[in-house]
Design brief:
110 residues; OB fold (Dihydrolipoamide Acetyltransferase, E2P); elongated; single chain
Amino acid sequence: MPKILLLFTFFLVTWTSPAAAQVQRLLPANGKLGQLVGQQHQYPLVQINREVLRLAPGGVIIDENNRFIVHGAVPANADVLYVLDSQGQVSRIILLTPTELARIEQAEKR
């Protein structure tokens, strides 16, 4: 029993360490930068860059901590990376951290 407890403690400390939290998220290469204005429209509509778009069936919204959130939990204003599907609907919205936004803007300048 003590070996199992020791092993469990090891994995708990290893997987919750600050080093594990520093891993960069993989962002889609075909994403577009935008400013999301939340709480303005009912589901499935979202407003990005003053344009009202439809969230695709199965479309996801991912917050800064890489968690899926529902339409009602979208912040009032957020910098996002969004992906449109072949029908022009939003298939993925990723809320960006300030570091990710700076990294993307720097890459676009090149």
